[in-house]
Fold this protein.
Amino acid sequence: MKFIDLWKNGRFGAENVLVTIFLIILAYLLGSSLLFIELALNFPDFSFVSNSDIKALSSLMGKNRLFIWMLIPFCLVFITFLLCLTKIHKVPLLSIFTARESFDWNRVLISFSLWSLMIFCVTGIGLFFNDNFEVIFNPQKFALLFLLAIFLLPVQTTIEELVFRGYLIQGINKRTGNIILSIITSGIMFGVMHMANPEILKIGYHILLYYIAVGVVLGFIVYYDDGLELTLGFHAANNIITVLLITADWQAFQTDAILKDNKAPGNGIVDILLGTTALFLFFFILSKKYKWQKKLV
């Protein structure tokens, strides 16, 4: 059976879906509240108004400490979502991730390595044309960031893949029977989810087009490859390598990375073009390697 059809045998009535959505939102809000509880207890004079205060907040409580608090909500959502899928929707755990007989870790590794290489290439191009990068490498702080990144970020990226490339695509397809509509709708929702990111406010809402493109391309990868393994590798590489490699005052994650980009964000057009080119090249390479020939029906 195709991955896109695996959940058809589960209990996905409207009431179960609504309960799952409610529990996911509740888990996220509870996880997010922990940051505000600490602020109230330990930093009562600080008033967090919006994501534009991230830089000030990271200076106040420390970058790695803030990094942990920002990822804890995703950990709670991850646990909640898996429980909802297995206990409420009654779907086997393996079918949540893949249509294969076993989870293919090799696919995750290949995807992770390929997209990591592309990130390094795009960053190298940026370094060549931009002299505003500053080396801020601190071995002690970076070591802690590295451990946090490899243990916490995969949880965040995995839950996003489960929701957007699994739950939403399969759910919309089950209702509409139109896989293209399902992938595009999920991609748009993935882009809109990033609307409150600080970089969006600095660069402009047109940068959401790149996030939407990422969501749509990953949706097609899941459809053609019958599993989440390749998108899990991509998403983990994208967030982990980016967090470890570069930070900037206007980004969502303020980290003790290797490099700091001191230039103003600008309009992001060049970054969109480079990222989109790498994205479609990534899809093309995988399509040739795995010989995808499935038709969009």
Q: What stands out?
A: The chain has a mean pLDDT of 88. The chain has one domain: 3-289.
